[in-house]
User: What shape does this take?
Amino acid sequence: MSLKVQKRLAAELLKVGESRVWIDPESIERVEAAITREEIRRLIHEKVIRSLPEHGVSRGRARSKPRRRGPGSRKGSTTDRKTLWINRIRRLRRILRQLRGSKKISKDIYRRLYLLAKGGAFRDASHLKEYIERHGLIRKR
Assistant: This one.
């Protein structure tokens, strides 16, 4: 027997579309027998019939391509973004200068990390330190 009517009733009661109605495959006989709204309500209460979560549309493909990056897609003002960038890059460069000054990293490693930081490779100071540790860039004494 078809579950079309039961799905329609459940969709109305759950206030979702029919495609979001989930029926427990182990209790199909019970759902087939349910023909009134009251019976469907009872099955929803017993969690035999449930609504599936909403599907979002992934932003992944939009982010991967260099399109739709115009002013209408940007969040926050230019000054907000620029201020965040300035604060972050100053912090990273200060750390790099300290590491170079205390001879913990060589000049060539400093330059490489400086350019990585300029290119936006590091989220924050802890990310830079983690990168240095992971790649073993600190000089051995």
Q: What stands out?
A: Residues 75-134 form a domain with the Non-ribosomal Peptide Synthetase Peptidyl Carrier Protein; Chain A fold (CATH 1.10.1200.60). The first strand starts at residue 21 and ends at 23. The mean pLDDT is 92. The chain has seven helices and two strands.
